[in-house]
Amino acid sequence: MDFELDSEQTALREAVRDLLNDAYASTEARRAVQADDPGFGEKTWLQLAEMGVLGLPFAEDVGGMEAGPVEVGLVAEELGRVIAPEPFVEAVVLAGGLVDAVGTADQRTALLGGLSDGSTLLGFAHTEPGSRWSPSAESVRAERRGDGWALTGVKTPVVAGARADVLVVSARTDAGTELFLVTGEDADRASFRTTDGGRAATVTFEGTAARVLGEAGVDRTDAIAQAVARAQIAACREAVGAMERALWLTVDYLKTRKQFGVTLSTFQALKFRAADMYVQLELARSTALWATLLLDAGGDALDAASRASVQVAEAARHIGQEAVQLHGGIAMTAEYSAGHYLARLLVLTHALGDRTHHLSRLASNLEGHRWVDPLAYGSATA
Amino acid sequence: MDFELDSEQTALREAVRDLLNDAYASTEARRAVQADDPGFGEKTWLQLAEMGVLGLPFAEDVGGMEAGPVEVGLVAEELGRVIAPEPFVEAVVLAGGLVDAVGTADQRTALLGGLSDGSTLLGFAHTEPGSRWSPSAESVRAERRGDGWALTGVKTPVVAGARADVLVVSARTDAGTELFLVTGEDADRASFRTTDGGRAATVTFEGTAARVLGEAGVDRTDAIAQAVARAQIAACREAVGAMERALWLTVDYLKTRKQFGVTLSTFQALKFRAADMYVQLELARSTALWATLLLDAGGDALDAASRASVQVAEAARHIGQEAVQLHGGIAMTAEYSAGHYLARLLVLTHALGDRTHHLSRLASNLEGHRWVDPLAYGSATA
Amino acid sequence: MRLRLSEDDAAFREEMREFFTTQVPSEIRESFAQGREHSKDDIVAAQRILNAAGIAVPAWPAEWGGRDWSPLRRHIWLEEMRFANVPPPLSFNASMIGPVIAAFGSQELKERFLPATANLDIWWSQGFSEPDAGSDLASLRTTAVRDGDEYVVNGQKTWTTLGQHGDWIFTLVRTDPQAPKRQMGISLLLVDMTSPGVTVRPIELIDGSFEVNEVWFDQVRVPVENLVGEEGQGWTYAKFLLGNERVGVAPVASIKRALADAKRIAATGGPGGSSLLDDPLVAARIAELENRLLALELTALRVVANSDEGKPHPASSVLKLNGTETQQAVTELLVDLAGPAALALGDGDGAQGLPHWAAHASPRYLNMRKASIYGGSNEIQRTIIAGTILGL
Amino acid sequence: MRLRLSEDDAAFREEMREFFTTQVPSEIRESFAQGREHSKDDIVAAQRILNAAGIAVPAWPAEWGGRDWSPLRRHIWLEEMRFANVPPPLSFNASMIGPVIAAFGSQELKERFLPATANLDIWWSQGFSEPDAGSDLASLRTTAVRDGDEYVVNGQKTWTTLGQHGDWIFTLVRTDPQAPKRQMGISLLLVDMTSPGVTVRPIELIDGSFEVNEVWFDQVRVPVENLVGEEGQGWTYAKFLLGNERVGVAPVASIKRALADAKRIAATGGPGGSSLLDDPLVAARIAELENRLLALELTALRVVANSDEGKPHPASSVLKLNGTETQQAVTELLVDLAGPAALALGDGDGAQGLPHWAAHASPRYLNMRKASIYGGSNEIQRTIIAGTILGL
Number of structural domains, chain A? Predict the structure, then answer.
């Protein structure tokens, strides 16, 4: 058992941190980047590509770095720290992860290479209006048309969907839920602002041309569930980074802001609340870290994702809200960062399943184990 | 709309308060009373009878005072204030209420007269091992034997069951759940201490002779549910009295107890927690008071009981635990009163249905109303 | 003790309900019911309708349009209005500066301002908070220096809600920097916002809305007759202004409607139009909120029923504290009901395909975090409860 | 980064598991598994078995029986022990006075006391808290006045856990009332509890149990050689004693077993043997607790894995705070699972017909409220976190 980064991992973390600190040195800088489409920094994205970050989890022969969940997790945590708007989790871990898991050798080479070098942005078009984190597609349907396929239906929200060069789209077929590739500009995409200042799109398919991802005729529900779980764990790490920064932002504010002639840090009730934020942070961090390591050890990703999500979502709401409340009015303004942390944490803990969703999953599986043993290898439960 | 007591009600409250303050002037006095069977003050019980309190809700022709839920509620609140161990709610509101609602004229005269003058203690033997606040009897069965009936089965816990002169017992018959009267000494009664220092009994019937309460062959499930709901509302008022006293006990302690050279009341975090206790108290008080008034207005007792219970149970746990925590170690000792308030509040919020039980009832009936209107007459929901 | 309203009060409730649902145009009410904020025009239009009917400023003295209603009736009036989605009279006018001018202003000030204030011919803004004085109002730094028949005002105010619409602003200024205590030496000035030197800058909030403003005073000259009451008494007036209302502290009717909407939405908001109420965790959460709200409403009713006129009721702090928490909890519920659609920040642009309520869930949630900060933060309310009620 | 234990540590875990489940008599373990507290005899017997195997006091210096294990191994050792329902070595001996004597005592004191302490031939009690000094330890009033070769001790201690079994008591006393700071002038004395003038009175707790005691010293004469270390350094030793353990701060394995028991009970605890887990609110609550406990355990593992020997780890406060809250939450769960049977205060007398777990739910719940008070209240833990970790 070992919770320390090795020297390569530490170097990666430092490099990513430096890059992001430069890019998002101020709230103003982040707002400026988000003011214009696509809602994230194209330059920063390319810099991340140059650093190898966008190819982290992929094999070297498709242009990747062949790193594991630990590296992916530490990058996510760094992104979270400055609430960077780049869609690393959605494009690399989720859409890229699906291409990697399901795609043919040619598709993997073409798409993951482009993803890794920053030339091809992938998006995952899966959520449908009214759906609640189901791993299967319901209303979007795919039909054979000639050699290829045609998609019909609506996906929303699709994170960075209007910017994506290629969309990975889930759709119903006779085989169940299959995955398809659609060239971004072939789809009707209406972009909108997201809660955290980013962009998502409503993507409408009206007989839109598509290629099947991987072999045709195979139900991909499980593959989607697995990829979402891996992305969820990375999002949890991103949330941990954001919570840590939100806490320290608050602590610094308490130390410097004066009211009634003294700094806020002299008020015991506020200090205690900061202490409770720290407790929540550390519990969430432990669980998110564990989920990462469990992935690394080949454990049950779905169980780990739900466990991390329940803990992180609780902490995120608590820490996000308290960061705003302890700051007071200033945190309500877009010019100050505390509120943006609250908003980003909301997105990170809702995009891939909220707390109730994950808790219900755990609650429905209580009788499968006597207790949870975090050190059990492969499975968390005994 | 009027939340004030009239002058007669105020006089009743003062009289009961004086009596109870004399009887339970100290924690030691209460412990001494509870040290011996029956776990409450026989003398205090008779004094309450003399004051008319034990006949409050019954008609004058059976020896009662013909008062309503408001009077019953204020007496309960006074009992709660000093956590008096007398079984007013169980004997008068619950067992007496059932006799009043279901009994024949003769039974009402005989039993309620004796209950009111203190000569006959009634107990309600209804809960069965493993049962969770169901209004019907399951394992205890009644069979005809000659002119009368014979009961078989176990009831537990039966509050004050070993002391009761007459037990009102629920049992299964062909008609469903009927109610029976059993002379206390005819049953096999094993007494035990309850969490709040009182006594309950496991009552075993082995062909024990019983008379049917009221007309035979009528299912009494609804009558039991109604009586339990009325008793639950009185218990909520008792809990409000206890919470109020627990709060002020804590406030007084914070004002006088010194640590680190200053009184505890100088610590902001503790002050804020006392403020939160107050908020919970007032919300619970409002709801319990409303439930009383709704009974008075002939409203839906079951709905009112569940709404009051959900609020009171939440407040009771919060206030009881915080009273102990803010006191510190001294509240863990039996010599000091704060812990007894926690224990009594536990009993008051578990005997007739815990928070989850009542919340589930409300949750299963969400679609019957658009919103809750507390001023609607008769029914709380529109 | 009695639960039901007296016959007179019940009739009053009917009368109010009738008025609000028939005399205020449904466009105004519908727009709000759909989840949009009231526009300036809607607020002005509604207040003028109420004022024409003599029910815009019931708490004022009778000679200036007040109605001498009991606190219970004022409660009913306000709650029925909120329930009917009618924008309540602008609080800066009706609850804040109006009563202060009526109580402390000269006859000339009253005649000059009260009718226009009641009719919303003047849109008042509040100039109290400053960048370095949030909850600690007494540390304000904006100065007003007497120069002949004028004060020269310099300084900065912030958190001026809806100040972008303001015609006039009532402002706390320091007129005597030498006063022995900080609370002394503060005065209350009425400032025409079109005066040279007044600058208003709307502040963007985290939900993308513009509600509050910064207001700068740069050598703004204000005639001395615009002083309310006496110089140096501003702190007293401010406390009166902030503390004299115990009616409507918690917007129970608004929360009730929002929660009822949430329940209705949940009943068909699941995948394929299924009911989210079938999820016992969702059902329990809604039942819990309905009950919390019931407790809050009952507590508000107790406060107005037992109201001792004139004295700020300390239980107001209970209502403010619990009211904001309950209100916020309902916005959280809606975010969770919205599911993945909670990613949208409103239903503009490409989000039009999302249900309106779902697309607005997150911005409302973010916006409503203000409730426990503005108007005396919940920490201030706890301090009041501990101090005033518990004696701690 | 790696999740699994190293092969050596995994083997160590197996070894410990094997030892505890085979070498400690099952009567001792079963009794506790049934929900009874460990008796004095059980505690003594178990500690002697461990001591004979050389694993009673692993954190001590090697020459006095210590094992020089990593913090992770000490964690595994303790957790496996708790998991096997083996009573851990008496903390007053193994974790408190033993390490202090080993670190600060004279060679003579070490020889005289350490072997007997490790073997529980001496049952130590703790004499720190006083009636007027709860969390504020430094304000203690018990005095020790030097008189020739003896100290004369007068005063009163309280909250002396299991003091009714005590042979000796380690006591903080004030030897120099004139010391410029309260923390100075305090010394640590070892007192034979059979000395004339020592009186012990067990205090009944709210669950009817007797765990803590008041201890009076009335002109008790204590030989000067029973002074630990130097006069006036008692505060330093006390801080060492209270702060030097970061292993086992949160009794994760005990909570885990209790929660697993609760789940097993719930599965058949409904009416007619039905499963309470079918109630989604109950299931969600248990799932939530399992997850909280997982987070706690992982945090404990992080603390021991990254442990920097010798320095008290501030995260210990996180473990203490969250550990007690989680432990208390499990006792609350059991009360609610017990339903109406929660009225019983144990299963004595007529309550024998009730399930053992149900009859004990309430007294355990009441008893466990102590967890957030004793051993540094949760308010103290928050103060430590805010101060030491956050710098507030």
Answer: 3
pTM of the model: 0.95
Residue A382 belongs to some domain of the structure: no
Residues of A in contact with C281 (CB under 8 A): 356, 359-360
Give me the residues of D, 101-160, that contact B with CB < 8 A: 129, 132-136, 139, 158-159
* D315 contacts A374? CB cut-off 8 A: no
Is D100 a member of any domain?
Answer: no
Taking a C-beta distance cutoff of 8 angstroms, is the pair D372, B273 a contact?
Answer: no
Domain assignment present for residue A95? The answer is yes
CA gap B382, B364 in Å, rounded: 16
Residues A179-234 have pLDDT tens digits of 999 999 999 999 999 999 999 999 999 999 999 999 999 999 999 999 999 999 99
The residue from D79, D211, D245, D297 that is catalytic is D245
State percent of chain A over pLDDT 90: 94
If contacts are CB pairs under 8 Å, which of residues 273-292 in chain C contact chain D?
279-281, 284
Each residue of C305-326: pLDDT tens digit? 876 555 556 688 999 999 999 9
- For residue B160, the enclosing domain spans 123-219
**In angstroms, what separates the C-alpha of D313 from chain A's closest C-alpha?**
14
- Beta-carbon pairs below 8 A across chains A and B: 10
ipTM: 0.95
Inter-CA distances, B90 with B231, B344, C81, Å = 7, 14, 45
Does D266 share its domain with D379? yes
The answer to whether residues C205 and C129 belong to one domain is yes
State the CATH number of the domain containing residue D288: 1.20.140.10
Known catalytic membership, residue C27: no
Same-domain pairing of A226 and A358: yes
pLDDT digits (tens, 9 = 90+) for A326-354: 999 999 999 999 999 999 999 999 999 99
Q: Do B283 and C9 touch (CB under 8 A)?
A: no
Q: Please give the pLDDT value at position D241.
A: 85
- Domain assignment present for residue B373? The answer is no
Q: C131-180 pLDDT, tens per residue?
A: 877 667 788 999 999 999 999 999 999 999 999 999 999 999 999 999 88
Say yes or no: A59 and A191 in one domain: no
- The CA-based dihedral angle spanning residues B297, B302, B308, B310, taken in that order and rounded to the nearest 10 degrees: -160
- The number of folded domains in chain D is 3
User: Does D310 map to a domain?
Assistant: yes
Last residue of a domain, one of B120, B136, B157: B120
B370 in a domain, yes or no?
Answer: no
pLDDT digits over B214-249, tens only? 999 999 999 999 999 999 999 999 999 999 999 999
Contact residues, chain D, for C280 at CB < 8 Å: 279-281
Q: Mean pLDDT lowest for which of A80-84, C229-233, D244-248?
A: D244-248
User: Which domain range does residue C166 map to?
Assistant: 124-231
Inter-chain CB proximity D352 and B201 less than 8 Å: no
Are C224 and C266 contained in the same domain? no
CATH number at residue A82: 1.10.540.10
| Confidence check: pLDDT of D246 > 90 | no
Q: Which of B128, B132, B155, B321 to mutate to test the interface with D (most CBs of D within 10 A)?
A: B132
Residues 84-103 of D with CB under 8 A from B: none
Same structural domain, B272 and B330: yes
Q: What is the CATH number of the domain that holds B191?
A: 2.40.110.10
Show residues of chain A in contact with B268, CB under 8 Å: 267-269
Mutate to test the interface with B, among D343, D349, D368, D373 (most CBs of B within 10 A): D343
Q: Is residue C59 part of a domain?
A: yes
